[in-house]
Design goal:
The chain is mainly alpha-helical. The protein contains 17 helices and 4 strands. Strands 1-2 form a two-stranded antiparallel ribbon. A two-stranded antiparallel ribbon has the order 3-4. Its main location: membrane. It is found in: Membrane. InterPro entries: Anoctamin, Anoctamin_TM.
């Protein structure tokens, strides 16, 4: 017998959402003789800590959604989709790495493919997510009236919409805090990031000088040390800034959770983008050193992936194991006359950390998308390392969700939210970056040998044409598949017909009441 979670948080959806939930959650689970222990729930045959970690490829997003809810299921769906979308880039990148490693002229074709790839995958994702959320019944979910955030404070007043008493805070004061405190602080952090970047370049120059004086194996390894140290410093700065951004955004006292999230995401993305990619832009477009760009990109990408895996999954898991040992010792030393297995399980789950959302996971994928789409034409193996990282990311995220954190509350959602816009913005920047890299290639320079101005104008023209083509493709490729559009139209038609029938029934009853009163 299959035992499912004893509760499910429902969402205000159409009738077909409940049918979709019953349809997607009532199928047979994979038959694994294991039990998952989560927060107060024993689930037979849904062994996420074994099934998820050992057979992740065969676990559908529908099964994840039935247990964790739509928000987390959509993240895992996006992670899986993005991993498969990287495969063509990885397949094309391997022969470029093997046969054209030092021939940057041949990277023009790879950069051209990169431009097309970065646009198409985001548009196809919209269609795929529409299929998923329609099946789950959340695609046409209407946005609920947002209540004030738990941390929102102010003088008590009356809400003109609801008529209820709630805190009121002046929007002028909030704007003053944003523009007079938060904005200068963000700019100061950006300046500090650039200052650290220049220190990194000084370290690289010293490493190069040492290598030229003493060309040994040790000096060759020293060449990679500045990039590795800089990658570690980048991760540390990103995490420290994240805490500062959360404090500032809370201090700004936003009334709605959506407003709070938008301001937080904006702060974090701006800093992370500059902190992670400023050195690559400087090497590519100021120093014009493609070989150095390739080395820095490879070192930053691989080091950041290893650090993220350790910090986000392995370290929390190790700390959780230590806590579990302490809890077990405390329980067995108490010698209470109770079922120790159940008591031990309750205490272990009580000590688990609270899951804070998918913000960091999406941010990691966003930065990875930047490494692949912005400069991968000079390092074609970037997509290969991204695929390998995402495969392990599936397992580490599963480990995180099932062994480290308590089971989060289910939250219905229709899209990945502001992250879709973030990825599309990165895609636009990648068009500009790859166009400039193509224009800098020796092959293109040979065509415009006599006129650099003409070359610049041609590059700008091509960049504008490609941006226009990108937006045309985004318009032509429908966000929802045709069959989903038809089903949604039928639902809307049926709801209108039902409303008309209800109005006719009410009018008919009123007419009968009027006739009865006349008699």
């Amino acid at each position: 017998m299959h035992v499912f979670p004893p509760f499910h948080i429902s969402s205000p959806l159409q009738n077909h959402s409940r049918q979709s939930h019953m349809h997607s959650c009532s199928g047979d689970w994979p038959r694994q003789p294991a039990v998952v222990h989560t927060t107060g729930v024993y689930i037979h045959l849904l062994a996420f800590h074994s099934l998820f970690l050992l057979r992740i490829v065969f676990l559908s997003t529908d099964e994840i959604r039935c247990y964790f809810g739509e928000t987390i299921a959509l993240y895992f769906g996006f992670l899986e989709y993005f991993t498969f979308a990287l495969v063509p880039m990885a397949i094309i990148g391997i022969p470029y790495y093997v046969f054209a490693w030092e021939d940057y002229d041949k990277y023009v074709m790879f950069a051209s493919f990169n431009l097309l790839w970065s646009t198409v995958i985001l548009e196809v994702w919209k269609r795929y997510s529409a299929v998923l959320t329609y099946r789950w019944g959340t695609l046409m979910m209407k946005r609920q009236f947002e209540e004030p955030r738990p941390g929102f404070h102010g003088v008590l007043g009356i809400n003109p919409v609801t008529g209820r008493e709630e805190p009121v805070y002046s929007s002028i004061r909030r704007q003053l805090r944003i523009y007079l405190v938060s904005l200068p602080f963000v700019c100061l952090c950006l300046y500090f990031s650039l200052y650290v970047m220049m220190i990194y370049f000084e370290m690289e120059e010293q490493a190069l000088d040492y290598h030229y004086e003493d060309q040994t194996l040790f000096s060759s390894l020293i060449l990679f040390m500045p990039s590795i140290i800089y990658a570690v410093v980048i991760e540390v700065m990103n995490r420290i800034y994240r805490y500062a951004a959360e404090f500032l955004t809370s201090w700004e006292n936003h009334r709605l959770e959506s407003s709070y999230q938008n301001h937080l995401v904006l702060k974090v993305l701006v800093f992370n983008f500059l902190n992670c990619f400023a050195s690559l832009f400087y090497i590519a477009f100021v120093l014009f050193d493609m070989k150095r760009l390739r080395q820095s990109l490879a070192t930053l990408l691989i080091t950041s992936q290893v650090l993220n895996q350790c910090v986000e999954a392995l370290l929390p898991y190790w700390l959780q194991k230590r806590r579990n040992k302490k809890v077990k010792k405390r329980i067995y030393s108490s010698k209470m006359d109770i079922d120790l297995s159940l008591f031990e399980q309750v205490n272990l789950e009580k000590e688990m950390d609270t899951f804070l959302g998918t913000f960091d996971d999406y941010l990691e994928l966003f930065l990875q998308f930047g490494y692949v789409s912005l400069f991968s034409c000079v390092y074609p193996l970037a997509a290969v390392f991204a695929v390998l990282n995402n495969i392990t990311e599936n397992y580490s995220d599963a480990l995180k969700m099932c062994r480290v954190f308590k089971r989060p509350f289910s939250e219905p959602t229709a899209t990945i939210g502001v992250w879709q816009l973030a990825f599309e913005t990165m895609s636009v920047i990648s068009v500009v970056t790859n166009c400039v890299l193509i224009g800098m290639s020796p092959q293109v320079h040979a065509v415009f040998r006599d006129s650099k101005t003409e070359l610049v104008l041609i590059v700008v023209l091509v960049e504008h044409i490609l941006l226009a083509l990108k937006f045309v493709m985004a318009f032509v490729i429908a966000d929802k598949p045709r069959d989903i559009q038809i089903k949604l139209a039928k639902l809307e038609f049926e709801s209108l017909e039902a409303l008309k029938q209800q109005v006719r029934t009410v009018n008919l009853s009123e007419e009968r009441c009027g006739e009865g009163s006349k008699r």
